[in-house]
Amino acid sequence: MKQTVLLVLMVSGVFLAGRIDGHHSGSEYDRSKVVEIEGKLLEIAWQNPHVHFTVRSMDANGKATTWDIEANSLSILRRTDATPENLKVGDTIKIAGSPSARAPNRMWASNVMAANGREIVLGPGIKPRWQTSATGSNTTWFDGGKSANQNAGIFRVWSSKLDDPVRLWRRDYPLTEGAKKTRAAWNPITDTVAPGCEPKGMPTIMEQPYPIEFVKKGDTILLRLEEYDTVRTINMAPNSDFDRLSPALLGRSKGQWEGDTLVVTTSRIAWRYVDPSGVPQSSSSRIVERFTPGSDGTRLDYTMTITDPQTFTGPVELKRSWVWRVGETVKPYNCVRAKKR
Length: 341
What we know:
Helix content: under 10%
Number of domains: 2
Order of helices and strands: HEEEHEEEEHEEEEEEEE
Structural class: mainly beta
């Protein structure tokens, strides 16, 4: 089996896919390059938080390399027609993706060629590499936002749409001097915001690209997020006071209605980060979110305003949106902890 390593510019489709896979391991991989190998498939795990492959390749001198390869999550791929049915342990496959900055035998996979000649793309928007078409190209990630029940309100499932605003974070935060130093010392390779199956806190969890659902339960509203099977509890009782409650990863949230807009105020957050780039968050952070359904029922607009004097010199406003998609549900995430390698 011959190992081939190609370093070329990534196709535009992989950059598009990076908009949703980057929330897990984007900092480790160089998205401007492609590594391509051919070798024996030793292991495949089709699961959350990442699909995983182990492949052994041989170079021209007969030296073996065992590759540790990640790809998009099962939650992303099950909303495409990508499946592992053509990938069998023991087969010789080709696989291409972004090389790691952490180790020379790691990559983030975008394309796989099975032994039977069928290509699989491992994320929405990724172009076939070796053939004119590939399994995985059909996807619901671009669907939604066209028709809906205008009277359904906020209490339903909302989905991300890749050609709608999904990216929540900014690059130009108004950081204090202390926050600048903390962020500069953060190492994107050795310091991870949410490694493996460890849950994320607020506000980082709100970047997750999977469906969300609002459920009314007595004096509370439950906000279900698919990633890590997260459930946020929003207390709608008037005069709710959280000052005596202990801090929590998701903070303590209370809500109120302004017309059709759900306004949620969250404080007492025991999560160290604002976003996956290492922007710090202090215990003084206060977050105000506004969830506003569109008049035609197809869209949910979202604005988050963070006030944290230890991190920012002024309030920071972040935005994204979701759409309504026929038949979508919040599926069990069932995160599987990676084996030690």
